[in-house]
Give the backbone structure.
Amino acid sequence: MASYSISKSSFLKFEQCSKAFFLYKKHPYLRDKLSIDKRLTFKRGNDVGFFAQKLFPGGIDVSVETKNATQAYELTQKLIESKQSVIYEATFIFKEVLIMADILHYENGRYFAYEVKSSIKVSEVYLRDACLQYYVLKNSLPGFEDLFLTTLNADYILEGEIDPRKLFKKRSVKKEAEKNFGYFEDKIKDASLLIEMNAIPNISVGKHCFKPYPCDFFDTCWKDIANEESIFNLPFINKDKLFEWHEAGIKNVSEIKDEWIEKPGHLKIKNSFVNKSAIINRQKISELLATLQEPLAAVDMEIWSAAIPQLAGTKPFQQIPFLFCVSDGYKENYFLSEHFTDEREKFAQELIAQTEKYNTLLVYDKTMEELAINGLKSYCSEYALELEKVKEKLVDVFDIFRDLHYYDPKFKNNFSLKTLSEVFNTGVTYSDIQSGLEAMNQFEVLRNEPEGIEKQRLRQNLIDYCMNDATATLKLVEYLKKL
Ligand code: SF4
């Protein structure tokens, strides 16, 4: 029985940082707790991978039939011997490296593998991951011909039933993979040697902690660095610069010399940190507040972007608004599209009707709201003029903070509405839902939930989450007015 010590994901960790790889292999208990957003991203990947099995239906899923990687490998070998034509999660080992091919298809004496990604773009990491699989398959599966990186087709428009052959597009990685066989051989040797060593590699923190993925051992490596005084709390300053200072032994903001800072705005932030006092440009804040016209309200929207389109006429990852909340401090209104049918037109009508009486609509970072309104304009062009009026009424409160007319060192480098709300003590408390991705996920659950208590709970959670953001935006402006 072939043994393995390196999985595909541990190999990718090794490429990012040898220390991360070592900790993953030898001290997995040090891994950070998986965030809900990461869990949801994995779930989406799994859902798309599962759906892609429809490209080659009727296969045997090795991961379902077995309990661990060893059993998965043994079952794959048996299925290969019996010439099973489609295998899902087919497991192979070569030179201590274990890979699982999402789909393996046997046709006319040759094998073709498919690696499915829930993305419309082919990234450098996806390509590397697919090339590693190709390397293992080529060396362990007689008759293996090619591996196709399979991504979602950005141009696919759903009409009637989903057609998996049109939903996905594929590209061969044969050329890149074969060019890189030597690279993988060397890297695998290095990774195996590292496992045999009994010492944690002496790697210091750097840009590799964030790229291509945020590292899983962040808390372990950054615990002594990420303190209140750390230079990494500074917003807007280029990461290269921060790591350059860090490597030169500069740990705290107060140790940075003024002459090292090129931009006057950055110098202001530094001084704000050192003096523990907020930057307040009353003139600029007043100018923005003077543009607000009563009556005003704050608006927040939630967007759904399903990897696999669910509504006729939509594409993979198309952004579809499903909820908006409006609060003027006295009255709160919302519209939640929750049925299985396409309610974008109703959404547009409600948005126009519920914001009509206001002259200003406050938003915190209007990028998403503008995108959503533009999408609605093209979907229901008969409302384009009125929707444009809604867009013109939007005033972005984020501008004040992004342009540093107000900066409190307690924000550090986090300008999220939640952080600002806490610093300004707006009294808005966030509960069940913590992020837009979580809201999107709950919306998907809500759509499929039968009417009942649970559906009502999900509905209320979503409305509370969105309304909290609208209320917090309104409270920020109230706070700024008092200045
Ligand atoms: S946090 Fe950074 S230095 Fe530490 S293991 Fe991860 S990538 Fe390596």
Summary: Residues 234-276 form one domain.
